[in-house]
Predict the structure.
Amino acid sequence: MTPIDPVFEQPELAELYDLFNPWMACDDFYKARAVASGGPVLDLGCGTGMLACAIAAEGIAVVGADPAEGMMRVARSRLGAEAVTWVRSAGQDLDLNHRFAFGYMTGHAFQAVLTDDDAVALLRAVARHLRPEGRFAFETRNPAMRAWERWTPDASTVVDSPAFGRISEVNAATVDPATGLILIDTRFRFLDTGDERVGDSKLRFIDRDHLTRLIEAAGLRAIEWLGDWDGHPFGPAHSPEIIAVVGRAG
Ligand SMILES: C[S@@+](CC[C@H](N)C(=O)[O-])C[C@H]1O[C@@H](n2cnc3c(N)ncnc32)[C@H](O)[C@@H]1O
C-alpha cells in the first residue's frame, strides 16, 4: 500500500492547503459533470473537501473519501460539510455498499498513487462502485510537459491569510533515478514569525498508453480523453493534462 505523504497527513499542513490551492478551472470542470449526472457522486481523494461541499450545495448526494486524517479533519469542519458523507479510506480500499452515477479524482491525486498495483487496485474499486452507465473522471499531468522542472524555489508563491499572516510556499522537485518518481520538498515559511513547516511528497508521471493499460486491467474502458480544462482533445506533445473519462468495460 502506498504510504500517505506527510504534506497531506499532518493537520497543520492540511490547514494551509486551501490557501495555496483555491478554486480552479478543474473544479468547474468536475462540478459541472457531477451536477449534470444528478448523483450520487464520489469524490475520491477529496482532500479538504472544497469541491465535494460545492457539489453537495447544489442538492447532489456526495461521498468524499480520502486516506489522510489531516485533510479529512479540515473537510469535516468546513461550511456545508454536513451535506457530504465523509469516509476515511484510500481508493484501493474503498468498500461502500453504494453505486455512483459519477465519480472523480482531482487535484492530481491519482499521481500520489505510486505503483501499477495500487493504481489498478484503485481503479478496480472505482469499477465496483460505478453504476452500469456511471462515469469516473480523473487527471494526471502529461509527462511530456515536464511540469516538475518548473517546481523550483525561485517560483515560490506568497499568500496573505487572516489566520496566519503572510506565508510562502517553496517547492523543490527532484527526480529519483531509481524509480523515476518526482520527490517534492515543500517548505511553508510564515514570513511574519520566521516559523517554517516542511512536508514532502512523491508524485508519479505516466503517459496515456501506460494509463490506458491500467484502466483496461481494472475492467474499465476509456470513453473520453481531454488535454485541458477547456475540453480540448488530448494531444501527447502539447496538452498539459491527461484527463480520462472512463466507464465499466462490461
Ligand atoms: C493534492 S491533494 C488533492 C485534494 C483534492 N482532490 C483537491 O482537488 O484539492 C491529493 C489528495 O489525494 C489523497 N490521496 C493520496 N493517496 C490516495 C489514495 N490512494 N486514494 C485516495 N486518495 C489519496 C491525499 O490524501 C490528498 O488529500
Summary: Residues 145-203 form a domain with the SH3 type barrels. fold (CATH 2.30.30). The chain has a mean pLDDT of 95.
